[in-house]
Amino acid sequence: MVFTTFVNFIRSRGPDEFWRKRKIFKLAAHMYGRRRNCYSIAIRAVHKSLQHATLGRKFKKIHMRDLWTRRITAGAEQHGVSFIQFNEGLHKNKIQLNRKVLADLAVWEPATFESLARLGEELDNYGNIKE
Fold first, then answer.
1. Model confidence at 7, in pLDDT bands (50, 70, 90)?
2. Residue 131: per-residue pLDDT
3. Is domain 14-121 annotated with CATH 1.10.1900.20?
4. Predicted TM-score of the model (pTM)
5. Does residue 88 contact residue 120 with C-beta atoms inside 8 Å?
6. Cα Rg of the chain, angstroms
7. What is the pLDDT of residue 19?
8. How far is the C-alpha of 109 from the C-alpha of 103, rounded, in Å?
9. How far is 40 from 24, CA to CA, in rounded Å?
10. Would the pLDDT of 129 be above 70?
11. What gap in Å lies between CA 70 and CA 64, rounded to an integer?
12. Residues forming beta bridges with residue 129, ordered by sequence position
């Protein structure tokens, strides 16, 4: 829009307010009661839900790492190796696989994981390779 005077520019705030509120109401569309229809309540609820969503993304990463560690530990102990020995065996043999891949191998490829676990068996209590 082109305004000929500054006064007309100042008075034209209506559509912007409509679209600003519409964004909030779209985010609050799944909520119950006045949280969905009343702007002053909806905006607080939407801000709180966005905060929870942000924290949820952070905690999801933490929970997934914990799950992968548990799966690797269970798979290693199934073959008689502790998690620490298993990790040291991979490190000594320069095998760089992340936790997600190792957890998938433990679940879906037990034969492959067993061969990786044997690398940890070859270490003594001090982390040196047995001869």
1. low
2. 55
3. yes
4. 0.69
5. yes
6. 28
7. 87
8. 10
9. 10
10. no
11. 10
12. 123
